[in-house]
Amino acid sequence: MSGAQDLERFRDEVRSWLEENLTGEFADARGLGGPGREHEGHDLRVRWERHLGKAGWTCLGWPVAYGGRGASLAEQVIFHEEYARADAPARVGHIGEGLIGPTILDHGTEEQKRRFLPPIQRGEELWCQGYSEPDAGSDLANVQTRAYLDGDEWVVTGQKVWTSLAHVADWCFVLARTEPGSRRHHGLSYLLVPMRGPGVEVRPIVQMTGTSEFNEVFFDGARTAAANVVGEPGQGWRVAMATLGYERGASTLGQQIGFRRELARVIETAERTGAARDPVLRDELVRSWVELEIMRLNALRTMRSLGAGEPGPEVSIAKLYWSEWHRRLGELAMAVQGAEGLVADPEPGDLQRLYLFSRADTIYAGSSEIQRNIIAERTLGLPKEPR
């Protein structure tokens, strides 16, 4: 059988499984979740995540030895495409599968792989990312959260902010300063910290959408095992940058599931309101579709580079591209609604929430300004910005 035939057989397998399983209890999960809508059906989506894991449909690209399928790039793309077509719910385990999982695979010890990867694959443990702080957002090297070794444990004290899904997470990967007197990107360590233990307080941040996907996290003497440091102590910057590469690279294929669903809603609304007959708005709708296809192709190219080694600064292109695109989509969502988009009764609708949430896209996970500097300095070799 040819490679093309193998891929079509795999596509049929994915499509059939989704059709057979998005029924009964999980029929209500269709279309739930996404940016600004992470509150929707959370418990149901957790059960769906575990159902996926039990059937072997999570972490497809991971090695078989660690619970994956060792799936090829083409097979992973097919799965994402069929998942989107089936209107399956937004994944609750994407931070574990797309960010910390690949980081542990590339930089973790064998003990860490055996401890942390299986629960991610099974959908049993959810993760959040402890990077940003009040004075260390886009300037991540200014991290002030501190940790020190006390016997066989790390003791962590500090504050993180804009921590997505911290209120439902079991674990957090935390960038902390572990060498007293160190500055900037020196002396940082990449720690894995439990969120359910003493010394951890989570305060949800109410957003413009009325929901609270983002959170403040306060560590006050929180403890984690000495072995829960990924990479060498004091060398956490390199590991943290690798994680950002995964966030801005391969994992965006899963993110684009939600983007396609949102664009489809915008187009349907434009047809209902008559906005699609406006030549300017129609041109913007077509442009959005074309740019989403470009986003997909760029993500595939980035995945190929990931296979050749650690992600480089060129992955900043992906973050800059999708965040600017998504923000424009939010604006277009408001335009096609016309006057009805100006009223939230009793709370914002899906497209209004898309607009409100997407205002943050060009700020979190590295602002557009920072991404342009990275591309200019590290990829194009242009002179550094004056400081």
TrEMBL record:
Cofactor list: FAD
Gene Ontology cellular component annotations, sorted alphabetically: plasma membrane
The protein's name: Acyl-CoA dehydrogenase
Swiss-Prot/TrEMBL keywords: FAD, Flavoprotein, Oxidoreductase
Organism of provenance: Bailinhaonella thermotolerans
Domain Acyl-CoA dehydrogenase/oxidase N-terminal: start-end pairs: 6-124
SUPFAM superfamilies named among the record's database cross-references: Acyl-CoA dehydrogenase C-terminal domain-like, Acyl-CoA dehydrogenase NM domain-like
Record flagged with keyword Flavoprotein: yes
Domain Acyl-CoA oxidase/dehydrogenase middle: 128-220
